[in-house]
Specification:
The chain is built from nine helices and no strands. Helix 5 packs across helix 7 and helix 7 packs antiparallel against helix 8. The chain is mostly helical. The longest helix has 21 residues.
Length: 155
């Protein structure tokens, strides 16, 4: 991610480090923390899944693959695929919610927030609770209520 900027103008590597930091608050599992660091590499860098598999192992690759948005994939399709993966390995929803938490603490345009309101509140939060991450889900819900609801209700 060298030189790459996230949507809010911060360096992309900082976003990845912040996601991993949030993940560390909820687990000490090394594979999950590494996946938090690598969560955007397939989408935003020229890294392939097989490279992650060979360097970091099957678990990290599975988590990263589970949270990676496919090009031209709708929000609903992406969520359904993520849910399928997360039901097999709940660490996927942990990394996804950490990613969404960090995104909600950085500036974003209201249109982008509006598109993500439903999938965050009805999808990720509900799935996180179901898979045993109630505290993280509550944290995400509070941020979503403040940031996402405001974006949805003002337009």
């Amino acid at each position: 991610h060298e030189g790459q900027l996230a949507a809010a103008g911060e360096t992309y590597i900082n976003h990845c480090k912040q996601v991993a930091r949030i993940v560390c608050e909820y687990t000490d599992d090394e594979e999950t923390i590494i996946a938090g660091l690598l969560h955007g590499t397939i989408e935003h860098a020229s890294i392939r899944l097989d490279e992650i598999y060979h360097k970091f192992g099957a678990d990290v690759a599975y988590i990263v693959d589970g949270i990676t948005t496919r090009k031209r994939e709708s929000l609903v399709s992406n969520y359904n695929r993520l849910k399928h993966y997360a039901l097999e390995d709940r660490r996927i929803i942990l990394v996804k919610m950490a990613d969404r938490i960090h995104h909600l603490t950085t500036p974003a345009d209201s249109e982008k927030l509006r598109r993500k309101y439903w999938i965050t509140t009805q999808g990720y939060i509900a799935l996180g609770r179901r898979l045993g991450y109630s505290n993280l889900a509550e944290r995400l819900k509070k941020l979503a209520d403040v940031n996402l609801y405001h974006a949805v209700s003002t337009n």
